[in-house]
Structure formats: structure tokens, C-alpha cells
Structure prediction request, 402 residues.
Amino acid sequence: MTQQEIIDLTEQYVLHTYNRFPLAIDRGEGVRVFDTEGRAYLDFMAGIAVYALGYHYPGFDEALIGQVKKVLHTSNLYYHEPLAKAAEHVVRSTGLSKVFFTNSGAEAIEGAIKAARKYAFLKDGRNDHEIIAMKDSFHGRSVGALSVTGNAHYQDPFRPLMGGVVFADFNDLESVKRLVNDRTCAVILETVQGEGGIFPAEPAFLTGLRELCDEKDILLILDEIQCGMGRTGTMWAFSQYGVKPDIMTCAKALGCGVPVGAFVLNEKTAERSLVPGDHGSTYGGNPFAMSAVNAVAEIFGRDRIVDHVQRITPYFTEALDSLMEKHPSVTAHRGAGLMQGLEFNGTPTAGQVAAEALRRGLLIITAGHDVLRFVPPLIITEKEIDEAAAILDASISALEKP
Prediction:
């Protein structure tokens, strides 16, 4: 099929919930994708922070093929080796206690919410507990995840949502403290806000939340679905703050393209929350998805992927700083590791820049209020950063012209 035939057929039969770019991707290789006409694109969005290892990283495909030849699915009524090994990888890397595997990040959030409410219920027998979430946050589009997403644009068409959620200001500890009461069971936030515009949590804010939660026996839930898995320069972003969550959610790069998520609990939460019958998932933790988790974990360790992120980040940061200095339409640059954002003043918009960059062979996406978001594969090189920066420079220059 031609690219246009694919686009037309998709629009005819697929529910229109995405405003897709006019690009039909056929295959990927390394840090590039190719459309059906054979044109190459440098990929600096990585399936929205999914393809941490790029496309067809050595050893990854082989692990999946090997599992396909064994068994794809067994149900969670039985044990299997891929699950046991994947659970060990995730739990040991987080320093927490137990993991539940899901099919997506939104499902991981749902499980985290349930675990927090069950923990509080077992303490006092009440079912009127509240969760404090953050304004401008994003946790997913299922009803529970949407309920703790602090953006009216996403929420308003689907009200009434899950009750018992109040919103504080991100990086404002006092705004959280003002909302705490005897019904508060958890505080949930992204360690680095993604959709909200690439805002890392400030150290004093996160350490203050940890102290507050410890004092009140409130659970701290950290969403690392986008910012985890080495993206910010450590395996999990929270480790840079000297704190640990009670529950952490992850997904995206956890399977590097295979749909898988997880929520991970510390010992006290695991021992005093969900029990058999409280939660489940038909596909969650199936052998195929777990083989992906294991392959990713082994590659990360063997090839020291996180060390590469630490080495390449200053070069990437400097390239983005140079773009901001050169172009008056770029008003801010912020981020952590290989999760970066450039904010625009609206002339041009970030969306216009993303569209122009696509035309020139670079894939990037937007976030928040006019922010261009960069979440490339973690294996990018200086040469590829230079190539992306040159395309962006040309794209912005073309759009800034009167």
C-alpha cells in the first residue's frame, strides 16, 4: 500500500482520537524510522519515550523470537520463568519490595490508586479517603488515571470522575500541606512532569513530600512512566533525590516497544494492601512481555546504557541551549537527562516547529503550553544530536521569517 492509501484506510475505519502526522511508518533501524516510500527520519520522540534502545538493538529481537517459539501466554494461574526473572530485575533496580505487571502505564496508575486506598482502608476501615494530585500533571486516560490528572482539558468531557481527588501546585510544598487532612491516603506526582511541559520536581519539594508522608503515614506515589528507565541519567529519577516512594509506576521503555507496565510497592505497602482477589490482569505479566522486560534489563546492564545517558546529556543540553540563544522565539529550556523541552513564545508555535521538522526528516513532539519535547532513544550519539540540531535550526529559522 502507498502511504496515502494507508492514511485514507486508517481514517475510514479507526476511531479519530489522534491527530496523526501525515506519515506512515514502515520500519525502524537504530535511531531512525522509514516511511512506506523509503524516506528516513531521525527519531527524537522514540514512540513517546518507549524505544529507549532504538530499533532492533542487538539481542532484543532474538530474545522475543526465542519466547515466541516457547509460549506467549499462560494466565496468572501458573508460574513461569520470565515473570520470576522480570520481577527480580524491577524490584532490585527500584529498591522496593513487590511488583505487579500491567499492560500499560494507565493500568499501572489504576493499580497504584487501588493499593493506596486499600492500605488506608485497612488502617481505619473508612472508604472516604482522598488522594492529593498535582495541577498540570498527566497520568493516563482511563477513568482512575484521568481523575488524578490535573488538566481540565482532559477531564471535563468525562465528568463525573472518581471522587476523592484534590489538586496541589507542583513544586509547592505548602500547597500540599494545606490539603492534607485525616482522609488523605496518598500523594501522587510525576518525578518529572512530561505532558505538563517537562518540569522536574525540585529537590526540596520531593524530600519535603517524603517527610510529610512519613509523618502522616500517607503513601507517596511516584509516576516514572515517562521519566524512568534511565531517561534522566539514573535508572529511576527518584534516586537522584535521595528518597524512595511507597509506590512507583513505570511502563514505556520497560518493554522497549512491547506493551508492558508495572506498579512497584515497598514492603509496608505490599504487606498491608492488595491480597488475592483484589486486583488482576489477564495479560499482565505474560511470558512474551516479560521476555521483553528481561531483555531490556540485561542490555541496560551489559551495555551500560545509563552511563551513556550521563555522558551524552551535557552535549545534548548544550545543543538545545545554543538553539535557545540563537532564536528569539525560544523562551526557555529545561529538563533532565534525555528528557528535555524547549518553550516557544507562540510565533512560531511548538506544533508548527514539529511539523516543519517532520518535513525535513526529524520526529519530535510537543508537550504542555507550547513546549517542544525531546525524548530520543537513549543510545543517541553526538553526530545524531548535531543532525537533529541542524534540522531544528533550519525549521525554526524558516518559521521565524516574517
Summary: The mean pLDDT is 97.
